[in-house]
Task: structure prediction
Amino acid sequence: MDIIVVGLNHRTAPIEIREKLSISDAQLREALIRLKSCHGIDEGVILSTCNRVEVCAVVQQIQPGFQRIKEFFEDHHTGLSPEEWNACLYLYSADEAIRHVFRVASSLDSMVIGEPQVLGQLKEAFDVAMHQKATGVILNKVFRKAISVAKRVRTETKIAENAVSISYAAVELAKKIFGSLDGKEALLVGAGEMAELAVRHLVDNGVKKVMITTRNFDNAIDLAKRFDGIPLRLEEFPRYLAEADILICSTGAAHYVITEEHIDKAILRRKNRPIFLIDISVPRNIDPRVNRIDNVFLYDIDDLQLIVDANLEGRQKEALKAEEIVSEELTAINKWLKSLEVVPTITALRTKAEDIRRMEVAKFLAKLGELTPEQRETVEGLAASVINKLLHSPLVVLKDEARSENGALYAEAVRRLFNLDKDLPHHPHRTAYEKEDPADPGEEKA
Amino acid sequence: MNALFFKITLICYFLGTLAFLAYLLAGKKETFSRFSLVATGIGFAFHTITLIARMFESGFVSLTHLVDAMAFFAWALVMVFLLVEFRFRLHVLGSFVLPIALISLLSGAVLPNEIRSPDTVMHMAWVYLHTALALLGAVGFAIAFLVGVMYLIQERLLKSKQFNNLYNKLPSLDLLDELNQKAVILGFGLLTMGIIIGAWGAGYVSGWVWDPRKIFSLAIWLFYLVVLHGRITVGWRAKKAAYLAIIGFIGVIFSFVGVDLVWKGQHSFL
Result:
């Protein structure tokens, strides 16, 4: 019984291959049923996002397991020959497989390290698999652990701090100037995806009023509707410059749309209240010399990229701390996995029974006082007989199930029923596990 | 005993200063920030004990000696920093406040300090109140000066697009400008009360006589009045306000220390 991962991601495979192998939400349930029906696969979770397609499974043997999952991929897709994508696959087993799942959940394996979406996608993939009954005691534990590892990484490191997109970098800069953006006003000159995204972020962070002007007034009206803003005609926008705390410029013009004179006048009317200018157009639309005016802060696309690069570098450093957390948690879950093996469970059960027998016999012999050797033997025989009779059937079932896919489940049940883990010092996450593992698996979803 | 407490205060402020500077210059070292705050807190506690002990020792609120005035100024400055730290979590302010507090404590001890038995005039309650208010006003102006310096640094970093460690630690321009305004209002209010009490007391005791300190104090009062007025009417905020706070505080230092060094008279600390 081993855990394996087979998959490909943005580093190992180009988009042309990833899209062919990807499994849509609609196909997911059917795919899980098919995966579960593969011979030798006991449990499985399928994670398919735009950056990765991977299967995590509990298999009886590693190499045949890899082969089954490759076949599973082959069955699924059409149009590519296996040679084309086989080289893109990564195969992990045991420790490395679990480490991989933890790293994916913690966004250490993402294109943009620390991005938050992948955790949600992983939770969703796990939920679906659980409801299809494709997961069992092992993957339930591994994925719940992965989610808690991701949360730990998020709170204990600064991996998700600081902007890593141009539009969000603009918001962070604005906050360094204005403190809070509540009630601030923004003016968007031009349009474009990046500019609109920046405006969206600004509005989400408290900007109250958005004025929009484009060369074509109809476009301005359309855009204004989206942000609940005010459309302006291109020729009248200079009059509103003084009202804007934040100005985003993104037009296709080949000349400076906003000049020193514009800003000079605006700052005078603003009585020196600072003004924040973002020029994301290439060629630039705001005369760079305006940055020389006091209380005017101008940034072009390269400046914003500079921030993004620095922040990404910062995340790389934090990722090192996160890897340590992952390693720590890996050790913890390995101890738990070990406890699931049937043989140690049998030993533990026998030891416990033997301990009880010895203690009880000693207690009752002391109460009975002087006994003849025969009487003594009878009392001891009675205790041994009760214990052996009682344990006979659980031990037989455990041995029988040892090789079946339910082995771990039985071992876990016996451990809990007979409270065996109390005697095992190597189980530090006992209570955490019980909390994470509600009797009704549906509870988690709610 | 008192000398010992004073030494402990000095050592704590010295360690606090070092830790605050390390915090300012080093990367993300959380230990420095905690240590600096602990050192400052302990230093402040001992400082408070020192001031109280000195009060009992000499039998009166001792503020009329330069060394005492400077010690009181440093104490109030640290107190205001601790309050701002709790309210705004503006830890980096400590990197600017602590060196100033340390320097004023030390300079109080280094500057000429003749022992002079207090005159009857200098012993009156209104004199202490007048001096304390004026000193607290100076604390307000000192805070305005420091956040002004921080404003100019942050403004320079933003303009030159140096998004370094210092940039990350310094707060937003808006907060610095707001603190500047609040500190100037606080300083101005306290100075106004100090001047009124001083003028009333002096008129009551010995009649009004102009002296260099009075002239300088009045000039400073007028300066800050214009600064506050200018902020509201013509927009002397942001960078301009930062410059004005710096210029104003240089004047304050001169009126407290410089005047005594140039002119000696009844109205001096020495």
About this structure: Chain A is about 55% helix and 15% strand.
